[in-house]
Automatic annotation (TrEMBL):
<feature type="binding site">
    <location>
        <position position="19"/>
    </location>
    <ligand>
        <name>Ca(2+) 1</name>
    </ligand>
</feature>
<feature type="binding site">
    <location>
        <position position="139"/>
    </location>
    <ligand>
        <name>Ca(2+) 2</name>
    </ligand>
</feature>
<dbReference type="GO" id="GO:0046872">
    <property type="term" value="F:metal ion binding"/>
</dbReference>
<dbReference type="InterPro" id="IPR033905">
    <property type="entry name" value="Secretory_peroxidase"/>
</dbReference>
<feature type="disulfide bond">
    <location>
        <begin position="145"/>
        <end position="176"/>
    </location>
</feature>
<feature type="binding site">
    <location>
        <position position="12"/>
    </location>
    <ligand>
        <name>Ca(2+) 1</name>
    </ligand>
</feature>
<keyword id="KW-0560">Oxidoreductase</keyword>
<feature type="site" description="Transition state stabilizer">
    <location>
        <position position="7"/>
    </location>
</feature>
<feature type="binding site">
    <location>
        <position position="15"/>
    </location>
    <ligand>
        <name>Ca(2+) 1</name>
    </ligand>
</feature>
<feature type="disulfide bond">
    <location>
        <begin position="66"/>
        <end position="264"/>
    </location>
</feature>
<feature type="binding site">
    <location>
        <position position="187"/>
    </location>
    <ligand>
        <name>Ca(2+) 2</name>
    </ligand>
</feature>
<dbReference type="InterPro" id="IPR002016">
    <property type="entry name" value="Haem_peroxidase"/>
</dbReference>
<feature type="binding site">
    <location>
        <position position="17"/>
    </location>
    <ligand>
        <name>Ca(2+) 1</name>
    </ligand>
</feature>
<feature type="binding site" description="axial binding residue">
    <location>
        <position position="138"/>
    </location>
    <ligand>
        <name>heme b</name>
    </ligand>
</feature>
<feature type="binding site">
    <location>
        <position position="108"/>
    </location>
    <ligand>
        <name>substrate</name>
    </ligand>
</feature>
<keyword id="KW-0349">Heme</keyword>
<dbReference type="GO" id="GO:0020037">
    <property type="term" value="F:heme binding"/>
</dbReference>
Amino acid sequence: MAASLLRLHFHDCFVLGCDASVLLDDTQNLVGEKTAGPNQNSLRGFDVIDSIKSELELTCPQTVSCADTLAIAARDSVLLSGGPTWEVEMGRKDSRTASLNGANNNIPGPNSTLTILINKFNNVGLSSKDMVALSGAHTIGKARCATFTGRLSGSNNAGEPPITNTEFIQSLQQLCTGGSSTLATLDLTTPATFDNNYYSNILSGQGLLPSDQALLTDNADIALLVEAYAMDPFAFFDDFTKAMVNMGRLGMAGEDSGEVRRNCRFVNQ
């Protein structure tokens, strides 16, 4: 669940900013983001946010936004998984709308090349360094076989990350004979612990998603960051917390924009 809440926060921030638009259900008057390609049958943790928000509404009605609730839940999930903590900047408002198109086009996909990753992050105002540090969130969680088909091919087609660990690829191919919905851990070494093993895995050719292994594709500066984070967990933690604060600032609304929803799934009536 820790990985799910962290991912939910990411997928929210990359669309309209960190405004809880990802939490909205479809209604007659609104098409939400939950049925977007990167989200459908993939995002989890909505019920956890519902439970937290219900408790907040009992204690201090319409005070803490769903967007702030999600940002704090993501932070605490990292901490409880053994990772670092940081000061979450508060004051986000909840969006009154959502963008299915934005969710389909803005969120970096699991088969993204390095160029696409850099561009997607730059498009929302995040640097390449932010991108490498935030990719380290894949040190926890799982992914369906359908999301890493580019690794299963065992080829070196243009745009795909190079195959440097054939034994690892063969183990994935065997695992995925169970079907496209079969789950694989993003970090084989310490799958439930937030640490820097994600980067060590990449260096040994064991990045699960094509977008993970792509960090070692044709960019010396990014490759050096991967190596630095693999060697020094404190450097990774420090840069990850800074990147999370930077991401958390995306699209933060002013006092006259947005609202504090009573129910995270619906705009206020």
